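Re-run with default settings, no changes from the original entry. Doing this only to confirm the output is reproducible before filing.
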Amino acid sequence: MYEIFSQYFPLWIFILIMVGTPGPANLLLLSSGAQNGFIKTIPFISGLVSGKLFLNILFSLGLGIIIRDYSILLKIFTYISVIYMIWLSLRGWNAHKKEIYNESILGYKEGLFVHPLSPKTWAMCLIAFSKFTEGFTGIFEIYFLVPTSFFVLQIVFHNLWCLIGDSINKTIGLNSYLNRVLIFITVGTVVWAILFVN
């Protein structure tokens, strides 16, 4: 039992750090939680988790090898990513205004594409499936353990980031300054991640 735990522990620590730290998805959740509250953000969280699970399954089937061999594909995804993430962020620009409120709510469909278009997600998947699975010999580890580990920790941390945003709204209240600061932080993180990946 100890050997199994010690074998997987580095992978779990890596996933914990990657999924728990700020990135485009978590900052979108922070903004959405602050703008719309936790309950109304649940469909967006579900889309995020579904999109990441789908991407992890593709990586377990060899997508990382294709990306490694054809790096131009990663660059194309990177540029598509910046446009999509900034568009999602800016949708909430006027979320503090009641007449615009319903238009700023992100749903399942928008969440579904965040992780497949996030440079941070691609980087963490490439590392997880290339570096941390080198010693794994079984089908269980590649096809079940890695995607499930990401899935479980994403549910925990995506909900947590959204709840933090929700609590900001409930304690401070959402106004134009706070709303736009959160948007600028999200956009800045997306741009930084793209520059870092390139």
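Residues 139-171 form the longest helix (33 residues). Residues 71 and 129 are 16 Å apart (CA to CA).
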